[in-house]
Design goal:
Length: 158
């Protein structure tokens, strides 16, 4: 019986390692706004359900970097042609981290661009042992937002 104990321990160790590392993937995707969109005022529909403190400032900053004048509203006025809506969630694994984000851009009510970010569900709060899950919200969202606004040149730093 002790002869098989080594094999069983090995199998348990390999199984635990497999389960620990499974679900380590991070998924991120974005589509770009077409260049014909009037780069003027962009309205952001504030989502009070998102409790990630740097989420909204990161979205605002990216839009401004690409030349948009940004206004944030709890209730979007009819005068807003281009509107961003967003949702974000966080999980805990020794500290809070953003594990899911969705950003959608609408032009006159029609979705014209979107971005999404998510860690896989699984052990260790989702995202497994992938260290990228603990990176800042800005680190995760900026590449996606730059992709959304890729047809609008970066404005010179002020």
């Amino acid at each position: 019986m002790l002869k098989n104990c080594g094999r069983i321990s090995f199998c348990i160790t390999v199984g635990w390692l497999f389960l620990s590392l499974s679900g380590c993937a991070i998924h991120a995707a974005a589509t770009s706004l077409s260049p014909g969109l009037a780069a003027g005022q962009l309205c952001i529909h504030e989502n009070p359900q998102v409790i990630i403190g740097d989420f909204l400032p990161t979205v605002e900053s990216a839009a401004r970097r690409h030349g948009f004048e940004v206004r944030v509203y709890r209730k979007i006025p009819e005068s807003c042609r281009v509107v961003i809506e967003y949702d974000g969630h966080q999980k805990w694994d020794f500290t809070n981290f953003m594990n899911k984000a969705e950003i959608k851009v609408f032009d006159r009510g029609v979705m014209v661009a979107e971005a999404s970010y998510s860690t896989s569900n699984g052990v260790f709060g989702g995202g497994g042992l992938n260290g990228e899950k603990w990176r800042s919200t800005k680190f995760k969202l900026d590449p996606l937002l730059d992709r959304i606004f890729s047809n609008y040149p970066l404005r010179a730093e002020e």
